[in-house]
Amino acid sequence: MTQPRITLGVSLKMYFSYQQTLAWSEEVAEIARHHPAMVNGEVGLFVLPAFPAIAAIGQIFSATAVSIGAQDLCWEDSGAWTGEVGGPMLAELGCRYVEIGHAERRRHFAETDVQIAAKLAAALRNGLTPVLCFGEAQQLPPDQAIATCRQQLIAALSEANRQQLSGDVVLAWEPQWAIGAPAPAPDAFIAEVCHGLRQLHDLGDFRFRVIYGGSAGPGLLSRLGHQVNGLFLGRFAHQPTALRQIIDEAAALAATSPSATEA
Ligand SMILES: O=C[C@H](O)COP(=O)(O)O
């Protein structure tokens, strides 16, 4: 499948009620139906709601270019795994993406590298594009942040590599200290780390997009330019008007991407 020039993702985490999720999705679907860069596929948007809202927002986004996904999955496909949701059911529900390894899941649910690697393999096995979250816990110089992230990526991709799985993987780099903060990491730091992450070519047979997350909001994408393949958004996408502004910025960036000017 052709990749959008700019990828935007929104995780609603557990912020919205069911009805709020539907109302927000209706407004975003309206934007997506009319935004030229979304209609022509230059800007891609995926939305990850809480599990119970997946089917309903799948209907709301059905006639749009917006993809839906989940915030987690089980590493097993079926069986006696009370409370879990497996990749096959997510695929049945129309999910294209699944988030894996978010810092909040590591912190609050003690997810380990081994579990994250198994979940990533489960996603690929079920035709879902993993949105692999990773990022350094403390503020580090860019070269050390890149080295720390590289180790996390090697661990997270290890099971997929062992099973010789391949496919698209969204690399959602989120410095842990920038998540839930008043502002994102400094622009120059984001640019340098994303550049370094995009140079990592020894991680397996995957097609990567590197997107930045951590208090990202309007203005950031325009400031970063082509240093990133997109953004992973949380709180600052809760207002549909703010998301529209970010989509506009993505469209402007997509129009000046090297592949766009060659076309
Ligand atoms: O999943 C999204 C990220 O954790 C970013 O969330 P945030 O923008 O609210 O910090």
TrEMBL record:
- Top enzyme category: isomerase
Subcellular locations according to the entry? Cytoplasm
Q: Which UniProt keywords apply?
A: Cytoplasm, Gluconeogenesis, Glycolysis, Isomerase
Please list every transmembrane segment annotated in the UniProt record, as residue ranges: none
Task: Describe the reaction catalysed, as an equation.
Answer: D-glyceraldehyde 3-phosphate = dihydroxyacetone phosphate
Cell inner membrane as a keyword of this entry, yes or no, is: no
EC number(s) given by UniProt: 5.3.1.1
What's one GO MF term for it?
Answer: triose-phosphate isomerase activity
Pathway, per Swiss-Prot/TrEMBL? Carbohydrate biosynthesis; gluconeogenesis; Carbohydrate degradation; glycolysis; D-glyceraldehyde 3-phosphate from glycerone phosphate: step 1/1
Question: Record's superkingdom?
Answer: Bacteria
Cytoplasm keyword on record = yes
Main subcellular localization, coarse class?
A: cytoplasm
Family to which this protein belongs = Belongs to the triosephosphate isomerase family.
Instruction: State how it assembles.
Output: Homodimer.
The identity of this protein, by name, is Triosephosphate isomerase
